[in-house]
């Protein structure tokens, strides 16, 4: 089951030892985040993901 978190501006979430996600601005239903991760980690917005990658992401979220 996915983890859902409530995060305020200027708070960070850590994933393992090498990934940090910071919420830098929330305004009118829009959230701006900064992701600090190693270059070998693929980071793609869902609406930009295509084909197999999109299917893989969607299926993983449903597990």
The outline comes out as: globular
Order of helices and strands: EEEH
Please list the strands of the largest sheet in the order they lie side by side.
1-2-3
Rounded Rg: 13 Å
Helix content: 10-25%
Strand content: 25-35%
Structural class of the helices, strands and pairings?
alpha+beta
Instruction: Describe the sheet with the most strands.
Output: 3 strands, antiparallel
Indicate the mean pLDDT.
Answer: 83
Tally of strands: 3
Indicate the low-confidence ranges by residue numbers. none
Alpha plus pi helix count: 1
Termini separation comes to 7 Å
Topology overview:
Layout: E1 12-15, E2 19-27, E3 30-36, H1 51-62
Antiparallel strand pairs: 1-2, 2-3
Explain how this protein is built:
The protein has 63 residues and is an alpha+beta fold. It has one helix and three strands; from the N terminus they run E-E-E-H. A three-stranded antiparallel sheet has the order 1-2-3, with no helix packed on it. The chain is globular and about 35 Å long. The mean pLDDT is 83.
Write a concise keyword list for the protein shown above.
three-stranded antiparallel β-sheet, 32% strand, alpha+beta, 63 residues
């Amino acid at each position: 089951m996915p983890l859902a978190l409530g995060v305020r501006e200027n708070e960070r979430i850590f994933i393992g030892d090498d990934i940090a996600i910071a919420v830098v601005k929330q305004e009118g239903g829009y959230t701006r985040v900064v992701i600090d991760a190693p270059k070998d980690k693929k980071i793609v917005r869902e609406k930009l993901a295509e084909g197999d990658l999109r299917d893989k992401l969607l299926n993983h979220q449903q597990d």
